[in-house]
Design goal:
Helix content: 10-25%
Low-confidence stretches: 1-22
Number of domains: 1
CATH class: Alpha Beta
Number of strands: 9
Strand content: 15-25%
Mean pLDDT: 88
CATH topology: YbaK protein
Structural class: alpha/beta
Shape: globular
Distance between the termini: 37 Å
Radius of gyration: 16 Å
CATH superfamily: YbaK/aminoacyl-tRNA synthetase-associated domain
CATH architecture: Alpha-Beta Complex
Largest sheet: 9 strands, mixed
């Protein structure tokens, strides 16, 4: 597995950042099953991201931004929706949106040719991603999920996404998110 090795000094795992001084040591989450799955999926796409372990759970874009010292707009917020198709069939839709704004569900439903789009409940999110809200990554799901990526994320050199656990995030780019997810760019706000 690409980022799970310890550094040469036996300390901080390769690719992750140490906690700020005064923070209690966190357990090494690079070997957590969901984080490992995300890193393995990224490795299949030749991506070895910078992984950061956060001192506290970051269940919102605002919390992740504060922990990283970036703006909420630089957070690729993974939002799962229940998409209803014209024939009544239901499927998950993952929208990677800038943490600076809300998804306009009516607009996205129309642009994605869906009958409707509703926020998914925690059970639906877990069923389709294998992850809980607050740690849903753009990749590493049991099955491929149709993904839409907010064009606003393209304004930033680096964006941060959850890595399968509410205490982990990884650095990526807009173009890389499109490539690794097979996602479709869209104005979602």
């Amino acid at each position: 597995m690409p980022n799970a090795q310890a550094g040469d000094d036996g300390g901080t795992p390769a690719g992750s950042q140490p906690l700020p001084p005064g923070e209690p040591p966190a357990r090494d989450l690079t070997t957590h099953p969901l984080v490992s799955r995300v890193l393995e999926t990224l490795a299949l796409h030749h991506v070895r991201p910078e992984l950061r372990q956060l001192p506290a759970a970051a269940r919102t874009a605002k919390a992740a931004a504060a922990a990283l010292g970036v703006s909420a707009a630089e957070i690729a917020n993974s939002l799962v929706f229940a998409a209803t198709h014209d024939d009544g069939a239901l499927s998950p839709l993952l929208v990677l949106t800038s943490g600076a704004h809300r998804v306009d569900t009516a607009k996205v439903a129309e642009l994605a040719h869906l009958a409707s789009l509703d926020r998914a409940d925690p059970a639906f999110v877990l069923e389709h991603t294998g992850m809980v809200i607050g740690g849903v990554a753009p990749v590493g799901h049991p099955e491929h999920i149709r993904t839409i990526i907010d064009v606003t994320l393209g304004r930033y050199r680096t964006v941060w996404a959850a890595a399968g656990h509410s205490h982990t995030v990884f650095a990526t780019t807009y173009d890389e998110l499109i490539r690794v997810t097979g996602g479709h760019p869209m104005d979602v706000a």
